[in-house]
Amino acid sequence: MPAINASSPAAQYGTITIGGDLTVNRMGFGAMRITGKGIWGPPDDVAGALATLRRAVELGVNFIDTADSYGPNVSEELIARALWPYPSGLVITSKAGWVRFGPGVWQHNAAPGHIQEALEGSLKRLRLERIDVYQLHVPDPATSFDASVEALARLREQGKIRHIGLSNVTLEHIKRARKIVPIVCVQNRYSFSDREWDFVLDDCEANGIAFLPWGPMAQGRKANEAVEKIAAARNVSTAVVSLAWLLRRSPVTLLIPGTSNVRHLEENVSAAAFRLTDAEFAELAAVVPKPYWLRA
Known about the structure:
oxidoreductase; seven-stranded parallel sheet; two-stranded antiparallel sheet; oxidoreductase activity; NAD(P)_OxRdtase_dom_sf; Putative oxidoreductase YdbC; AKR
């Protein structure tokens, strides 16, 4: 595939450098939704999923987030099928820590042996010799967190991982992991209306760690009212306003909204060119959403 255009739509909000040597556009793509219902099996429209991946790259997306558990394996296989040989500058990040036994069913496994096995499978499916960013998908209550991170560190020493990230973690997890190996990104649930991990994002910003918010769209009545007001006034979708808020929230946010629909993808990417005014940002900041666990 041709190299990604530096002036493309996904590049309009600028770039972020991960680990000191990987510079990507701050509008990325999450590849969980290109699988079947319940994140299980292939999608109903395989051709549409492949077209979405190819269109993402055409729009300048050069950071794609996936995991071996998405499908399982399906997301990684579709990425390779759609995009290999990969364009220059494309960063694909994958994850390990969940195992799957059915639609909507997720079970922890971050044992060192499983992490190594999962990585080997991801390398094969993605047709890569090294994964640029590999993340612990979730801490495993049955496995020492330090042991999971040490397993990732060993794979990095072997040259199979370039950089290491964490997902679904607390600030304590991040601090413990950084004593073992450099951490370049953290992926936690976060949106305009779900700011439980505000302090983790602030810590990432203070330490130059990229923050990848999953579940990035505003939810909840009060939050939606505020977002809808701006969206209507500016003639854009609420998705665009929600994503634009995340981009402005911190210079270390790297967005990975997911979809299997080309139209939705184009709408999401258009948020990179959208700017909230100071007044709009202040209006949204004045809305204090309920904590995630208290929402109706």
